[in-house]
Amino acid sequence: MHDGASALLETGFRRPDALLVAATLPVLDGIAVVRAVRARLDRSVCPILLALGADESDRAGAGLDAGANGCLARPYGVPELLGVVREVRNPVRLATPPGVLCVRHITMDVANYDVLVREKPVHFPLLEFRVLRILMENAGNVVTLETICELGWGSPNTASNTVSVHMRRIRKRLGDTGSPRLIESVRGVGYRLRLDGERSRNRS
Question: Is 50 exceeded by the pLDDT of residue 204?
């Protein structure tokens, strides 16, 4: 579809298994399309991915708040797209059995998809929940970008800026705005969730 209004109309007719929406569309904005579809169809019924251009990363937050399951940076390859679609439709199972994870002021109930930050519930979309789980299960250690992409998106070829967009969202949900970061970026390698009292190894 070439415009948001037509895309919304076709979605009502076709009831797709998943939806890929460009952030910027004529007639009806892509984020407005996400919001309208999500008002009628649950995340599990119709996952929505928001495609972002190089100069549109600031729109990721609005798209996720509107109900998108995740974001894809354009240009993207077909393997990356299919990997993300597979992930939101059939999540990759991690090695650790369901339970409760506790790292610093974060508590995660894996089985019930609940996260408490300083004992207050905070909603995490599926992809961000999975990425946070990966970091919590490996707290104190650097998790490579390839591992995060493979376990979080189902494809090791996910663009690094796609991961960066979601990592910023995770930090925001955790209130990770201080210095040093709770989740630090190890340049050229990946990310690490610092344990209490640990010194930062990198600078992000």
Answer: no
Pinpoint the alpha helices (H) of the chain.
4-14, 30-40, 60-66, 78-89, 126-137, 145-153, 160-174
Q: List domains and CATH numbers for the chain.
A: 1-75 (3.40.50.2300), 95-204 (1.10.10.10)
Highest-confidence range of 49-63, 133-147, 176-190, by mean pLDDT?
133-147
Nearest to 137 by CA among 87, 102, 170: 102
Q: DSSP secondary-structure letter at 2?
A: -
* Tens digits of residue pLDDT in 109-139: 988 889 999 999 999 988 899 899 999 988 8
Q: What is the rounded CA–CA span in Å between residue 151 and residue 162?
A: 14
- The CA distance from 7 to 183, in Å, is 37
CA distance 128 to 91: 12
DSSP letters of 113-159?
A: TEEEETTEE----HHHHHHHHHHHHTTTSEEEHHHHHHHHHS-TT--
- The two tokens of residue 74 are 């354009």
Query: pTM to 2 decimals?
Result: 0.55
Q: Average pLDDT in the 16-32 region?
A: 85
**How many angstroms from the chain centroid is the CA of residue 99?**
21
